[in-house]
Each structure stands twice: as C-alpha cells, then as structure tokens.
Amino acid sequence: MTDDLTLAKETLRRRARARRRALALDPTVAGARAADHFPLSAPAAGLVVAGYRPRGTEIDPGPLTRRFEALGARVVLPVVIGPGAPLAFRDEGAWDAHRPDAGGVLAPPDHLDEQRPDLLIVPLLAFDRRGGRLGQGGGYYDRTLEALRAVGSVRAIGLAFAGQEVAGLDLAPHDQTLDAILTEMGYIEV
What CA–CA distances, in Å, run from 127 to 66, 73, 86, 172? Predict the structure, then answer.
C-alpha cells in the first residue's frame, strides 16, 4: 500500500521536474558556473570523483569533473547493476564505448575497472538547506550512499539549479542526505 509520504514525494517530483525544465535553458553553462563556485581547498590528487552522464535537464557535471581531473583526481561514472542494488562506479573510458546499463543509462562497459569514490556529484530534482535531496525515485543514490558510508568516509555533493531549492523536504528513514549543494549561484555547505 502506498503511504502519504510516497504520494507527497511523487507530487513533488512532478512539480520539481517541471521547475527544472523551466530553469534548464543551458545546463552546460550552468554546470560551468557551478564549477566556478566549488571550493577546492584540499589537494585533489588521488581522489576518486564520481560524476554522472546528464540526462534531460540535469546540470552537466562535466565542467566540475574536468576541474577535478586537471588537479589529479580520477573521474568515474555510475553504473546501474540491477534493481535494488547500489550503483557501481567505473572509470569513464571512451564515451563512444558506453552502452546502456541495467537502468537504460549510457555507462562505461563492464571491462573497465570498478572504483570506490571519495566524492559523489549527485543529480537531483529538489534540495533543502539541511542536505535533503529529492531524486528520481529509484533509490539508487540512497542505497549507494548508505553502502559507501557503512564502510568509510564519502562526500555527496548535490548539483542543481539554485531555483530547485525548496523550504524543506520530508525525508524517509532510508533517505541519505547531502554534505553540500552546488548551484550556478554558489556553494552551500550542510
């Protein structure tokens, strides 16, 4: 049976998708502006940074991941292994070699090395200043962050348009929070 929180989240997802479509005139330009706001106070050499392939109106994390790469970080991309499983992360490899994963998203092929990220750049539909995140509803990032945090330290940075901020999100017990949010207007540490 569907509970009230699930129904409320589905309603919010529909509204948030419409809002993001209205904000997303140029997701690559917004991604570049956001990258300019990310504070790189610690050396990035040796870090494993997980980006994502933007779908639809998601902000392009490419400018930020290239900035990390230039400082010596290794960039990986998420791979949907199957329903109910956490994401795997593989070296990005050649983009023209990417194939649809179990979720239908273009992802690095199976033969590339899997990595454990130190930092995840996470797409979202809505966020609040407490680190609450509303995703697409599949739970992949929640399961992944829970699994990664159970065995060590990992940071999750939500990448969004500033206009995707909401006053507050009702989170379920399984919802994982963000450590910071990065927008085209600035950086918000949680």
Answer: 24, 27, 21, 14
- Strands 74-79 and 99-100, sheet pairing: unpaired
Q: How far apart are CA 40 and CA 152, in angstroms?
A: 21
The 10s digit of each residue's pLDDT in 112-137 is 989 999 999 999 999 999 999 999 88
Query: In the structure encoding, which two tokens stand for residue 58, read together?
Result: 């998601």
Helix (H, G, I), strand (E, B) or coil at 149: helix
| 62-70 helix and 27-37 helix, angle to the nearest 10 degrees | 40
Residue 90 and residue 26 in contact, taking contact as beta carbons nearer than 8 Å: no
Q: CA-CA distance, 39 to 95, in Å (whole number)?
A: 28
Name the pTM for this structure.
Answer: 0.87
pLDDT tens figures, 133-181: 999 888 999 999 999 999 999 999 999 999 999 998 888 889 999 999 9
CATH 3.40.50.800 fits 4-189, yes or no: no
- State the maximum Cα–Cα separation within the chain, in Å, rounded to a whole number: 49
